[in-house]
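Model it.
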Amino acid sequence: MAAIESVIIEVVPTTQVAEAFYTDVFNMGGRVQVRPSETPSAGFRGFTMSLVVSQPATVNGLMDNARDAGATVVKPAAKSLWGYGGVLQAPDGTIWTVASSSKKETGPANLQIDAMVLQLGVADVAASKQFYLDRGLTLAKSFGSRYVEFDTGSIKLTLNKRSALAKTAGLSPEGTGSHRLLISGDAGTFTDPDGFSWEAPL
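Modeled.
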């Protein structure tokens, strides 16, 4: 199974604020790393990150902590057809969804993160699916040309139509420049059809 070890977010102009945010607020450990970048980027960067948690209280706690640490609330947490969740923009500009499949509290409140998901917005889901299958990724779920999920270890990977992913995040799909994202994993070193770059772990 080809696994994602970490995602590396490129930030402008310095890394200190982003490093503190991901360490202190989301407690990402080594799964999220940052590095400086001078590559321009404007609008939607073509991806979102998602934190999956057990219940609404955990969603609210993480979103409150993130907001207090400088994140912007893009969509306040609320119930939906699929559960309960909201959307944040981290201080470095990365879009994060915090969500639970449960609409009711299921136990004592905590800030435990159950799963992290990298959601890529792509032009052609079917073509990108085949691209990643050819590079050894293991398919977990597939819903035609709308959504694909791969089993990539502690950081799951999904493919979504770019416009649909932006809409879910409450953003315009328009964007130019760098994704400001590097995916580190054992699938190899390559750039996918939508310009997302992968490299082998150091």
